[in-house]
Fold this sequence. Notes:
The complex is a heterodimer of chains A (796) and B (164). Chain A is α+β, with helices and mostly antiparallel strands. Chain A contains 19 helices and 34 strands.
Amino acid sequence: MAQALDEVKIGGLGASRKRVEDDRFVVGKGNYTDDFKLPGMLHMEILRSPLAHARIKSIDTSKAWQMPGVHMVLTGDMAAQHNLAWMPTLSYDTQAVLATDKVRFQGQEIACVVADDPYIAKDGCEAIQVEYEPLPVIVNPYQAVAEGAPVIRDDKEGQTDNICYRWDVGDREGTERAFAQADVVSKIELHYPRSHPSPIECCGSIADYNAATTKLTVYMTTQAPHIIRAAVAIVAELPEHMIRIVSPDIGGGFGNKVPVYPGYVCSILCSILLARPIKWIEDKTGNLISTGYARDMYYKGELALRKDGKILAVRFHADTDNGAFFSDAQPTKFKIGLLHSAFACYDIPYAYMTAQGAYTNKAPGGVAYRCSFRVTEAMFFQERAIQTAANDLGMDQAEFRRINLVKDDQFPFRTPYGFLLDSGQYEKCLDVALNAIGYHDFLREKEEARKQGRRLGIGLSTMTEPLGAGNSREYDILGIKMFDCAELRVHPSGKAILKIGSKTQGQGHETTFAQIVSHELGIPAADILVQHGDTDNTPFGMGTYASRSTPTAGAATAMVSRKIRAKARKLAAHLLEVSEEDVEWELGRFYVRSAPNNGVTIQECAMAAYGNMPDGLEPGLENNAYYDPPNMTWPFAAYIVTVEVDPETGVWDVLRMVAVDDCGVRINPMIVEGQIMGGMTEAYAMSNMQFITFDAEGNCVGSNYMDYLLPTAWETPGFELHEVVTPSPHHPIGAKGIGECACVGGPAAFVNAVHDALDDTGVRNIDMPLLPHRVWEALTYKRDVSGAPPLKTDAD
Amino acid sequence: MEERRINVLVNGEPKSVDVEPRLLLAHFLREVLGLTGTHIGCDTTNCGACTVLLDGLPVKSCTMFAVMVDGHEVMTVEGLGMPSELHPIQEGFREEHGLQCGFCTPGMMLAAKALLDENPNPTEEDVRWGLSGNLCRCTGYQNIVKAVLWAAEKLQSEAGAISR
């Protein structure tokens, strides 16, 4: 009898297959946007505003026009002639492409210069003279709603204040009743600071408009090429089939490369006007001061608690600083994303939440930085509130969580905010983490150390998060429902090409998506080429963010493989000369049920699809599948961090970091672990050093890597990883998504650990990042430390 | 601007090119020579994506002028190894999943080469310190460190085999 295939050996599910992407990356043969050079290509640079809020009195571009090598100086007035001075955003707002009336944040785009090379283009920008009339500046949402605040968005008809949305969800009255019955009410107030995702590669595009064919090709750094194509069709009023978006290799995204940026639009307009390819590559400061910021949320909340530790209800309010334009992508129904997924992993009967967004004189904010829409904000607040509540009750951190976590037999579980959790083993994850860190031993060690004047602390974070938007019933962006497609072509020799609508920025789709096909069809992963990122050449997909690729495009890949297998079964029956009902499947092979030695491989079926098909069967072995997920997937994580705080300096060091992730079935364990470690590093960075803020004039402090500190190999702690597997009951292969869990749940573990080290001081909150001077201030003066802008200076 | 002739050995090949004095080394390598494996990240000597070896020592090519390498030797990722014959550092990054988006990787590998040239048998701490001039946003460094240690071991065993 034929030997059954070993799935791991052929690179199927569960194989820690080496990445195919690496073949080109390790020899420097990746193709990033800046690597493309087209014949006749010109270079574009952007002039940005030095002021955060000012009326533009005049723009004089005459000197720039006269410079040798300059081909065009584009201003807002010129763009307006093509109806492109403003553009719609992905959240039903508008955003200035090039400022015409006034500038609304420091770094806003004012003009751009197209020249023979980027050096001349930069010279051109410097030759432009702009006269400004400064206006009062707003750098936080409380200033924005204060009486007499200037209206930032006076461009919007009917906008008489700085509020950009209001939202509420949950059971207000039920929550009020529950609070009336509480033994203890635990309150917390904090700020999740503005943060920049800051991939190492900045944004950029090469627009290539062919005047003869009227086809526009744009090579660009986008995580969501198909959505961008739709947006360009709307913005530039071009027919969608004549727009081709190519998203080549991307040097990191983390949500920063989802929005549509003015630079992209300007490169397109200049290419149309000049009929030449136009390359625009942003510099780091441009990236840091003008593109998709995240977070910037102010919370006030409280938990209603029973003495025995049971949480009866939660309610909170969030104010968001959206910057000058509401331009981050949020699902239409959810103005503050999925913030109401907060507290989802706990069995809390009643909950209510309100939110309000404000326009300020800062760059657009609110992008989903390595998380589903606003989910990092949700889980950070949740876990800070949980730690504070446990302390207010005088209960053990782990025990308080255990009492309130949703139990295994409660799934599917409806949260009070309306989500349906699919599956999980929350207590098991918690126990694995507690055992791994040696919880009780550490508590004793902490006590002993305290007697000697040393400050140790332990921080827990347990959370589930909603991944894989949509379903289409609830989730859409710009009216386009959120689902994904995969197309599979199996060639005569049994080699295959898979085309997907999602787009890797380092997650390794070219490796892992082949593994899904391999799992379903038994074709070795090495025989499957994965294509993505080119809208002319791949089926529709909403893009890669919100950990949605595996839950949606990955599911579509499994489903299209099953369609292929169903057709191959017909071919097998034909080849084996039996009826289809008599054919059985094992990995990579069909056989006759009554004679298992009599079989054909999937490769033989593929050949038959092109060379020996039965009468009446359509030739070929190709198909596609659209997958509309029935629900979100809900991975769970338990993270524990131990730290030592130096009371003399406020510096804190991570002693150990344990991560237990249950992301369902792991397609490629090596890649899953890489994703967890990467996410945890960003979590550590946000808690410890990633500090970017604004002074009272709206100047961005942290506008380059000398000031905006990202951790190096030296600072980054080591990670101890563990796994629990609860397959998603509704995903075809049981996977849940993993790219963002650690970044979402991680920050609270670090921050809780530092607060735990200060647990005898009465300090309830120090805002992130927990810079040494903030920790020192809290410890020395026994007071909370706010990090909200404007930046405090020595003069304050 | 008046151009100046520079003579430089790039990945073992002599190059004689006229360049503007203000042309950055990173742009010279990428735009003039077409060696796009050297990436530009931050423009301020912080991220290290543009790291190349100048006479064997790591430098950040985004803040050096091309004219400064006149008469010197430069190695970029393209000179490290070929697809058919990877350098052990390149193999190590692949084996230990030391990269994700790949953007920092060329600079990271060249910094690693300089480190191993100087210290063929580094500890984990040595590697973390030696690579602390290079930023990675994807991996969390743990696998990069493993990759460099993997390469060190392979280079050591190769050297051992030769000396025997």
